[in-house]
């Protein structure tokens, strides 16, 4: 008889959240122990209301240190350079407390790790163990997919994302700012680290050659290039961290489950970060799988293939749709043709004037 019900391969945010969710069901969990101490993590995640609800239920969200999470009350999306087109979203218009939360990736990891240490049903292990169910949460570079005979259908964008922490001389006031321009997408996410009320998380997606050139610049050169890109809308910016970069792609596993195994998070799907939905998709995977296992028939094992197909069917459609949306937006704003630029900028202005459509779009983001 197996000592463990579930072996979770991968120790990131999705893996830890899954371990905590399944431990609440009374299952015995083996969780991979991180093999390499993490270095400086400059990432900041945008979390939806549903993701925050899950983390709060796991006793993780309220355990975050002060200033680790910042509410987004408004969002402004601008079009091509020289255009006055803009799309604005407001929590007040939507009738919610906030549109999203921006959270420090390292702080969230630490809060999850602390919760794991206090959960008696979770054992951290240094090597794979036998269990009724293997949950693969290793990320996009997972080796378990190949072992399971799963094809990784990947489309590289020829783009690189650059992330960093910034401090502005003007307060952010909880406003997220994003620029959709050919050929780049730039986001400034309001943040309270390192300086409360004045910090941003930067996510800048660019063609690989341009990103490489920016990463090679010294700090003053990079800061000037960034300031030229965003203008004065957020005030004068300065770097407050190292810069990180990674290649961007749209990818999905050919199947997500089989007898005794299942894929979650970036091991199952990867989308462009322009909508900030990557981690939200992974946490939604956690919520659905935990619910499917909780509601299973008493005679079914947690590794039952038909049971795991229920999870896969429920998650396939929304994940596919988010991939198509992010890919479509990227392709639309990558076109440099004058007529197309004019059309998409007018589209931003039109949507901004249609309150019901704006409410619908915001609602989809809040519910993801």
From TrEMBL:
Residues 117-322 form the FAD-binding domain. GO terms for molecular function: 2-octaprenyl-6-methoxyphenol hydroxylase activity; FAD binding. SUPFAM superfamilies: FAD/NAD(P)-binding domain. PROSITE patterns: UBIH. Transmembrane segments: none annotated. PANTHER family: UBIQUINONE BIOSYNTHESIS MONOOXYGENASE COQ6, MITOCHONDRIAL (PTHR43876:SF7). This is 2-octaprenyl-3-methyl-6-methoxy-1,4-benzoquinol hydroxylase. It comes from Caldimonas brevitalea.
């Amino acid at each position: 008889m197996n000592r463990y019900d579930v072996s979770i391969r991968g120790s990131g945010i999705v893996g830890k959240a899954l371990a905590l969710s399944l431990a609440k069901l009374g299952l015995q969990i083996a969780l991979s122990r991180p093999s390499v101490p993490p270095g400086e993590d400059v990432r900041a995640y945008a979390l939806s209301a549903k993701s925050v609800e899950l983390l709060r239920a796991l006793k993780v969200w309220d355990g975050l240190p002060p200033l680790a999470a910042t509410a987004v009350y408004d969002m402004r999306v601008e079009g091509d350079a020289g255009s006055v087109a803009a799309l604005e979203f407001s929590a007040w218009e939507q009738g919610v407390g906030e549109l999203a939360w921006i959270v420090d990736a390292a702080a969230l990891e630490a809060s999850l790790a602390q919760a794991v240490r206090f959960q008696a049903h979770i054992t951290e292990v240094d090597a794979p163990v036998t269990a009724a169910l293997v949950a693969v949460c290793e990320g996009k570079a997972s080796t378990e997919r190949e072992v399971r005979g799963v094809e990784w259908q990947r489309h590289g964008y020829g783009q690189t994302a650059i992330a960093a922490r910034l401090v502005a001389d003007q307060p952010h006031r909880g406003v997220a700012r994003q620029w959709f321009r050919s050929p780049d997408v730039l986001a400034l996410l309001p943040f309270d680290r390192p300086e409360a009320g004045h910090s941003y998380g930067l996510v800048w997606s660019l063609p690989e050659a341009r990103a490489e050139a920016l990463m090679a610049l010294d700090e003053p050169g990079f800061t000037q290039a960034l300031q030229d890109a965003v203008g004065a809308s957020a005030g004068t910016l300065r770097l407050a961290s190292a810069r990180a970069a990674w290649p961007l792609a749209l990818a999905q596993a050919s199947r997500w489950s089989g007898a005794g195994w299942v894929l979650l998070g970036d091991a199952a799907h990867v989308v462009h970060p322009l909508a900030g939905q990557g981690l939200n998709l992974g946490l939604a995977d956690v919520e659905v799988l935990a619910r499917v296992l909780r509601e299973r028939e008493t005679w079914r094992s947690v590794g039952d293939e038909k049971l795991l197909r229920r999870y896969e069917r429920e998650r396939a459609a929304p994940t596919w749709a988010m991939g198509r949306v992010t890919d479509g937006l990227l392709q639309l704003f990558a076109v440099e043709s004058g007529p197309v630029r004019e059309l998409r900028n007018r589209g931003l202005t039109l949507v901004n004037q249609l309150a019901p459509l704006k409410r619908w779009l915001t609602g989809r983001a809040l519910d993801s």
